[in-house]
Description:
The protein is of the alpha+beta class. 43% of the residues lie in helices and 11% in strands. The protein has helices at residues 12-16, 26-31, 39-51, 96-106, 110-121, 125-134, 157-164, 168-191, 202-219, 265-275, 295-302, 336-339, 361-377, 379-396, 400-417; strands spanning 36-38, 87-89, 92-94, 135-137, 148-151, 228-230, 247-249, 252-255, 290-293, 306-312, 323-329, 346-347. It has a 3-stranded antiparallel β-sheet. A hairpin with a 2-residue loop joins β2 and β3. α6 packs antiparallel against α7. The relative contact order is 0.13. Residues 24-28, 65-77 and 415-421 have low confidence and may be disordered. InterPro entries: HNH_nuc. This is HNH nuclease domain-containing protein. It comes from Orbilia oligospora. It holds the Pfam family HNH_2.
Amino acid sequence: MEDGASQPGTPAVEILRPELPTGDSRENHIFNTNPVLSLADVFRHITAKAAGIDINHSDPDTLPDGWLQASSSIFKADIDNKYLEPFEYSGHKISVLNLVYALLTYGLQPNILALELLKKTLKSRLVRELMRAYFRMNGKPMNDQDLQLQLKINHTWEDVVNGLFEVVAFRHEMRIWARRYFAGLLVPMVAAKGTPSSNGTATGNRTQAALRELCLKRDGHMTVIGRVWNRFWPKDVVPPPRTELWDYGALKACHIIPQGSPESLNLRELLINFSGDSFIVDMINHTSNALMLTTQFHSSFRRFEWSIEAKLVDESKNDNDNWIYVFRKFNPYLPRALDQHADGEEVFFGGKDGNIPSPNPELLNVYTALAKVANASGAAEAIDLILRDEEEIRERGLTGRTWGKVGQNYLVRQLERLPTE
């Protein structure tokens, strides 16, 4: 531990309180017109300024305008940055600043994430001194959840960025934090194969078969997305007339939150931090966590190329009948059947049997938020390249030529998956 470092578990508000003035005096209220910001917005300003990101384009509900039509480089800063170098994962570079900014912009509980990052960086005495020098607390917060900061009138965001990124410990902790969410949350979501119950056991196969039958009844023997009709429909079900908008295929029940989520303690913790709710990892084998998809659709979904987002019709009500589902498109080159859906188009779940639960809105929104983080930060493209390299390993075997591409990251994930397969 660094000389003078805070003790583990010390609240951030107590670490900053001794020398950090509060902004509740009349003089400060009159002369300091800088906005009072949440912790998430403080770190968003810091990373945006360092990465050259236009903070004004960010909206938690959507990716920047023109995302699907333009080169991603328009919205993402260069990976190589003078303030903070990228981290490497399986031979590919990942931008720390872009990932941190995206997590704090699209995460469902950005202040929980920001507080976690703040506590990591405050282990450094120099960082604590700089935070006290640059910011004042708003009012007199009693705990970390109430902590809000205001940039002092005699400092600029350029001062903050230049000062903090000069501290080795600040750069180190931010890099470690970003890498943890990339390797522990985003990569497992994309790399997941199959569904939690398709583990080859008799019980697992029966569970998967039951889940599939329930989802088929719920959605009327078709995929809600892509409108692919179940090739093996029951005789008592009459399929619609075939048109160019319809297709037939083998359907399977695919999970929104994938295999391994409840078993991996690290993934479980990161999911809870990201979403702010522990229930999302406690309902894996349920129709609320399942979509009927083809193998192609599932592969595209798992790579964060599209998602389904739930929106409240009336913000004052949170009951099951008050949600609508919309298609979210994160790749302009989707399979033809998926490409017929416009971004933001409303989709409908539920066939003749209205008693089977539709996909849970919170689960869908967690996955959609992860898709936004992955696409806005450039992580989705990097993960796709990483998994292509790993596919080469599965085909060619682990050799001297392929080891350099994936190294230990691939082997660690394979070991983590053993208990669930």
